[in-house]
Amino acid sequence: MNVAVKHTHTSQYQRADIHVRKDLDFKINQVQTRYWYENSAIKTRIFDAICFTFPEGERYFISSVRAFRNQITNPELKARVADFIKQEAQHGIAHDKMNQHIEKQGMPVAAMRLQLNKMLNTMLENRSAKYNLAFTAASEHLTAMMADAFYTHKSTLAHIEPNFRALLAWHAIEEMEHRDVAFDVMSDVAQISYFPRAFAMVAVLTKVGILDVRLINQLIKADGYTLIQRIQLYREGISFTFGKHGVFTPMIKPTLSWFKPNFHPNKHPVIAQYPVWVKTLERTNDPIAAGEAFWAAGK
Ligand SMILES: [Fe+2]
Ligand SMILES: [Fe+2]
């Protein structure tokens, strides 16, 4: 398998080829630890809330891009869209298993899913196909920058369950591989201009931010924490996420590059240790080993 990162358009643009990988097993059901992120309730539930949104969110991304599929004439982009759809479908399957895992812990997954679906279906039914495509492209940029932020430095995910670290690593790798697909459909096929594109990111940050805070609160409540305890946990959560050394702090600046008029996802370099994951999976056929090698190769 060729794992070289290619330069496209000009030397400023980098792209890793999309590879569809199916049925990778991260043995999530074998994880015994309730709070898999540093044994911390708030840190774990912040990650659980974000991961919870993936299956439904990714099915929404697929629908949004699929709406333009018949208008794509470039065979290369058509093929990348097909692979993007297959990758996102696999992510949904894997993250559904993670959601079953937290449901068994007593988390209100069914009620949370109703809220999320209501938000996504309202957008699909009441907004234009272009709005949903731009929303998807902006979300894809956010996910790719999140993937970079989690794995650039080893310290970020140093003390978490290896099974989850490997699941997130595989997802991160594939988000990096297909980061330009929805964007290219948005720009080249739907020809969405700068202002609706910029507005889409504002909508994503607002809607996803509000939703995640609500979901985290529901999870922590279901864990049995009182209001006073929750307030203390949220203070801890704010410094964990967006504090000086917060896990999401490094992604703020690259996410905002979306607003540059000449932005393209491939202007961001592909993460340095990308080939480590691909080669380790090829050699071992073990996605957990690949995830661990990828994480360990961080700065
Ligand atoms: Fe995904
Ligand atoms: Fe994606």
Q: Major sheet: size, sense and barrel closure?
A: 2 strands, antiparallel
Structural class: mainly alpha
What is the gyration radius calculated from CA atoms? 19 Å
Described by the principal axes of the CA atoms, the overall outline is: globular
Q: Are any ligands bound, and if so which? A: fe (ii) ion
Helical proportion?
A: 55-70%
**Strand sequence of the main sheet, in spatial order?**
1-2
Individual helix count: 12
pLDDT averaged residue by residue: 95
Strand/helix succession: EEHHHHHHHHHHHH
Low-pLDDT windows of residues: none
Please report the total strand number as a whole number.
Answer: 2
Query: Which strand-content bin applies to the residues?
Result: under 5%
Cα distance spanning the termini: 25 Å
Features of this protein?
299 residues; mainly alpha; two-stranded antiparallel ribbon; 12 helices; 2% strand; binds fe (ii) ion
